[in-house]
Write a structure and sequence with these properties.
Layout (H helix, E strand, L loop, with lengths): L6 E7 L15 E8 L2 E9 L7 H22 L18 H18 L7 E7 L3 H11 L8 E7 L5 H7 L4 E6 L4 H11 L4 E6 L2 E3 L3 H8 L5 E10 L5 H9 L9 E3 L1 H6 L15 E5 L1 H6 L15 H11 L3 E12 L5 H26 L3 H7 L1 H15 L7 H19 L1
Parallel strand pairs: 1-2, 4-5, 4-7, 5-6, 9-12
Antiparallel strand pairs: 2-3, 7-11, 8-12, 9-11, 10-12
Helix pairs in contact: 1-2, 10-11, 11-12, 11-14
Length: 418
Amino acid sequence: MIIFHPCQIIHIHLEKDDWKTAIDENYLAFYCVFWWHGIPLGDKEFTRPQLPTSTEALLDIATPIILPNLKASLIDASLPLPLDLQDNTLTPANAEMLKQWEPYVLQLQTVYSQTVQNTVSVVICTRDRPEHLAQCLESLLHLSPLPEEIIVVDNAPTSDATQLLVANLPQIRYVLEPRPGLDYARNAGIRNSTKNIIVYTDDDVLIHPNWIQQIKRAFADPETMAVTGLVFAAALETESQYIFERFWSFNRGYQPLVYDRVYFRKYWVIGAPAWRIGAGANMAFRREIFSKIGDFDERLDVGAAGCSGDSEFWYRILASGFTCRYDPMVVAYHYHRREMAGLKKQIFYYMRGHVTELFIRCERFHHIGNLVRITLFPAHFCNVFISSLLKDRQRLTTFNQEILGCLSGISFYLKKCR
């Protein structure tokens, strides 16, 4: 039997020496995120016997973790590399090396602080969750700079609670979308927004203060049509939150990544895994892309198939010859589902939406590789089952829901989508 302990999330800024004061003695497990001069560069889990430790020992642990991510970020920003980073045969990294790298990190910080002239509409799609929404909106209203426009799309509400909440916030525009379905709401956000970058987040998300600045910067390349960002867990207090973060996390890592024609062609035979690009809780699009390839497919996501409207749209961007970018400086924090029943239901719909998406891709583009990917699911589930029995049985918590979701996705597409 696996015993779960609530996990404290600690954001450690390596240039400071005050991280020990953040440790709560009531926790037995810790998830530490390493930042350096405002740049997120890695993470690691610790147990109570491992923390607290000395600052030097912590830096010795953090250094090899952040090294490859720092190198990738410097290359992405076209900045010179320290000599230590110019090869992959380093001696064991230690805290002393951080002093040598700091000038390069400060150069990177300067690049990330640059102002790029874009205008941003933030769209939050919500349904009957005013308590969550209030927290999300509070974090948005503390951004620096603020977005030029904030829109709340109230999707088929059963009460006027959301409308009343937004009525007290004159900076925010309220839009009612009576048709139930997340992608109906997303498309209503497109129709009602006016700025050249449309950014989506969810009502169970908190936003990092420099979110808007980093989104604008991430669109500096005119070839970029979509941007996604780093999504941290906002809390790991329950087992279901921890399982989601371990096996289904929205965190796509700490290295900037470009998804383009090369990436798309690499996976042609089995359908490009566009879901790796990011998460719908933290995504943005250049407005013009919607006139080029259409809006979100309303057969997908919550209220329909259950999920994957975001990844289907990223796939469509790639298939049409455009580029997506993952930028870890675009930071948000997501509250995963606290209850196990909610997690299992979520995973069921994730898989149902995923399979439906693969059929829709094939329908739209005649890319047979997406059907090939569906045929690989039995082998995938066999591998997951065997490896989980041998290594980590916690992975099996949602296993039945994954299989049932896949089967439901086939049925859903054949009955309701064709």
